[in-house]
Amino acid sequence: MINYLETIKTILFLPNIVKQYPLHIQIDVTTMCNLSCKMCNSKKIISSSENNKHLTFEKFKIIVDKIRPRSINLAANGEPFLNPQIFDMLKYASEKKITTIISSNLILSEKIVRQIPYSGLNILKVSIDGARKETYEKIRGKNYEILTKNLSLITEINKNLQQNVLQIRFDFVIMKYNYKEILDYIEFAKKYNVNHIYFHPIDIRGYDEKKKNEIISDIEIEKLKRIIQEAEKVAQKYGIKTNLETLIKKYFVIENLYSTNKSLTIKRRVCLLPWLSMFISISGETSPCCAIYPRKDNTFGNVFDCEFKDIWNSKKIVDMRILCKSLDNYKRNSDCKNCLPMDFNTITNSVFTFPNYFKETLKFKK
Question: Whole-prediction pTM value?
C-alpha cells in the first residue's frame, strides 16, 4: 500500500533500495494506432512481435494487482481507445481508487467520445500539435474536422456533468512545423476552455539524420525561446497552466535537442522516475520510464514472469538509481540526454499540468 510519508522520504533521500512499490506506472495497453504522425517513431522502437497488439484486460489486472500503484498512465505507443477492453480497465482502476491518465489523439467515433467522461478516467491528455488546420493536418493527417467536433462534444458533456471528474489537458510536441504558432495554440486551448497545456520537447529516439532534418531542422533557437517566453505570459493572463516556465528554466534541454551547435555543454540532470515510476510494455517488459523502451535484451524484468519485488530492487534498477545520482549521468546514459528530467521541481510543477493529480495520488493510505 502506498504511504505518503514513505514517498516523501524516498524523494528526499533517494535510497538505492526502495521499500515502497512505484507510486506511478505507465502501461502500454495497445500498439495499434489510427494515425501516422510525422514525428512518431514507435514502429522502430517496439519489437516486431509487439506490433499491432492489444493488452488484455486479464493481463492488465495482473499488473495492477501486483503493483497496486496510486496512478496509471494507460498510453505509450498506440491509441488507447482502440483497445476494445479499455473501458473495463478504467472501471477496474477506478474501483481500486487509482488515478488514471490517458493520452489520445481523439480521432474516435462519437460513441467512444461520449463514453469517456463517464468512464472513471481522471485525466485526458489530447495530443494536438497545431493550432491551425493546415499545420495539424501536415503533422497528423486530414482529420481536423473530426478532432474539433470531438473536442466540442467532450468539453460540452464534461461541462454539464454535475461532478466534473474528467480533467482535460492539451499536449503539443515542439517541431519545425509548429513552433511559430505556440502563441496561437494558447488561444486554441482557451477557445475550448482547456486550462492545462503541456509542451513536449520532441522524442528523437531511433531518428536517422534524414528524419532529424525533416522534423527539427530550421528551428531558430533564440526565436523559439522568445516565443516560449511570450506564450508563458499570455497563458498566465488567461489562467492556463503550462510547463513553459520549466522549459525556460531548463532551456539547455531545448538547445541540446534542437540546435545544430554540437559543441553545447550537456548539463547534469537528476531524474526521480527510477524511485517513483515503472514503464511496462505490452509484452510485460519493464524499465523506469518509456524513454528507455524495454525489449527482451534490455528489460529490467518481465512483470508476468517474476515477482515484482525482484524487478523493483534488482541490481539493474539499483545501478540505474546510482547512475541517476552521479555527477556525469548525462554522459553515461544516452537514453536520457534529450529528455526533460522529472526532478523535484518538475514534479512539483506537475501539480499544475496534471490537474488534481497530486491531490488524489499522494493521499495518505492507512
Answer: 0.91
